């Protein structure tokens, strides 16, 4: 295990909480992203643009606005938040679970995009051939479409995890900055920068964040290329044959 003794207790707690938040967010986000990616790739209705805009809205909307909307919807007095609290005792506002929710919403576009592209690249004629052989649609999806889309799913998963680790704006608006509860890596850096003598610890945490981000990008590329080779897919589309004069 990597020795983190050169980090302070509060810094290690922030990193540990960030990993917990990112893992939880991704666990709930991945199945939804696969479903959305498949729908966006295969749905031919004009209403698809509405779903596409909704999925990518957190990418272009100010994160603080996203956090405020989450607070209105999932706060203790929000329509969804109050219902979840009464029925299941599940509270999001000012809890680490809310930080996971905010991270999942902000990472959604980054996870769905590569998954959608992977589904679009999968040849639908393979599923048609399987249907002609009597294979059920759900079995064809699990045995044909899903394996072909695996490089995009893995790439989206890794990038989404990195995004969840670095999320700040929506998180601080929705769940505030509570030590030991919602103070993730990004929020800890902001707190240290506003405190006297906090430049050193802030720099250490920033370096940890940079290493994680670079590692995620490199790992995503390596995994994607490896899966493409195993599936026999070419990263570069084949060139068109030249016409003979």
Automatic annotation (TrEMBL):
InterPro entries attached to this UniProt entry: MetI-like, MetI-like_sf, ModB_ABC
Highest taxon in the source lineage: Bacteria
Cited Pfam families: BPD_transp_1
Principal cellular location given in the protein's record: membrane
Transmembrane segments: 20-41, 53-75, 87-112, 140-162, 202-223
Keyword NADP attributed: no
Membrane topology designation: Multi-pass membrane protein
Keyword field contains Transmembrane helix: yes
UniProtKB keywords: Cell inner membrane, Cell membrane, Membrane, Molybdenum, Transmembrane, Transmembrane helix, Transport
Residue stretches making up the ABC transmembrane type-1 domain: 15-223
Coiled-coil ranges from the UniProt annotation: none
Subcellular locations according to the entry: Cell inner membrane; Cell membrane
Annotated CDD domains: TM_PBP2
Function: Part of the binding-protein-dependent transport system for molybdenum; probably responsible for the translocation of the substrate across the membrane.
Family: Belongs to the binding-protein-dependent transport system permease family. CysTW subfamily.
Name this polypeptide is given: Molybdenum transport system permease
Organism: Tistrella arctica
């Amino acid at each position: 295990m990597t020795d983190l003794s050169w980090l302070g207790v509060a810094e290690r707690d922030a990193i540990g909480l960030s990993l917990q938040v990112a893992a939880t967010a991704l666990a709930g986000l991945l199945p939804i992203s696969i479903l959305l990616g498949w729908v966006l790739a295969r749905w031919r209705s004009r209403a698809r643009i509405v779903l596409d805009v909704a999925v990518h809205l957190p990418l272009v909307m100010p994160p603080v606005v996203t956090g405020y909307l989450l607070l209105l919807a999932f706060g203790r007095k929000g329509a969804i938040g109050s219902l979840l609290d009464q029925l299941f005792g599940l509270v999001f506002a000012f809890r680490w679970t809310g930080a996971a929710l905010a991270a999942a919403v902000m990472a959604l576009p980054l996870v769905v995009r590569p998954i959608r592209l992977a589904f679009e690249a999968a040849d639908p004629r393979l599923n048609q051939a399987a249907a002609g052989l009597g294979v059920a649609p759900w079995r064809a999806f699990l045995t044909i479409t899903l394996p072909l889309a695996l490089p995009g799913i893995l790439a989206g998963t890794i990038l989404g995890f990195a995004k969840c680790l670095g999320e700040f704006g929506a998180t601080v608006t929705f769940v505030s900055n509570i030590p030991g509860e919602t103070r993730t890596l990004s929020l800890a850096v902001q707190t240290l920068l506003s405190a006297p003598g906090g430049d050193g610890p802030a720099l250490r945490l920033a370096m940890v964040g940079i290493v994680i981000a670079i590692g995620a990008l490199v790992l995503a590329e390596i995994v994607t290329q490896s899966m493409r080779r195993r599936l026999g897919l070419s990263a570069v589309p084949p060139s068109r044959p030249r016409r003979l004069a």
